[in-house]
User: What shape does this take?
Amino acid sequence: MTDIKAAYLACPIRQVISRFGDKWSLLVLYTINESENGVMRFNELRHHMMDCSQKMLSQTLKNLEQSHLVHREVYPEVPPRVEYSLTDTGKSLMPAIMALIAWGKEHFNEVVTD
Amino acid sequence: MTDIKAAYLACPIRQVISRFGDKWSLLVLYTINESENGVMRFNELRHHMMDCSQKMLSQTLKNLEQSHLVHREVYPEVPPRVEYSLTDTGKSLMPAIMALIAWGKEHFNEVVTD
DNA sequence: TGTCATAGTTACCAAAAGGTAGGAATAGTG
DNA sequence: CACTATTCCTACCTTTTGGTAACTATGACA
Assistant: This one.
């Protein structure tokens, strides 16, 4: 492995961004966290994120599960029931995300001038 | 404008992500902020971000300037000298970014298991 | 037998992001 | 005149991302 690649892997900023810097990840984490009991089903999430396609939602959830930020619980019923919740690691990320969102709300007008 | 689009535009999470959720923006903000006097020249940034192409760096800086997060000062010299620094808005974002980075450092091992 | 509901997956296509290589501008220096 | 240094921009190509529509599985229920 090259030095450059090693430096890349060691950089926490890139790690952070590569894990949930995409179009939907932060929104999923936020939405699950804001729910009543911290648990949400697939279609329930879909209704809260109306402009996210089914494909992107399941893809995003799969990534978050692999990053150990979201827990996926499957109940062997028919029709199937799958519940998503934040892991402890996922919960520990929420303060940082909420700080980012708070900043976004406060400085919206300074940044967006299109 | 549809209701869905209005909801989209009003969502601070998306605004935040769309402004600096790309591959390089957060790293640029972080790098400028960590510098000696808070000011960096183009090639200086390049050396700190070795695997970012020239094209992407200038593109990223342009976006950050348009979002009023970075200030660009051009000195009419030859060869040209251009200095980049954070605006007040940009500085106000740093605590949230540093919180995210701190989280990334702390939870690196829980999340990255490839 | 046909339909419903849930939670997906897959194939296919379009759009966006990002990398490489080369050019442009220009004053100073040898 | 040739060469250098600095900060880009542009054309071209590849890779990644994201959307649409159709398909799967299965037990209950009419």
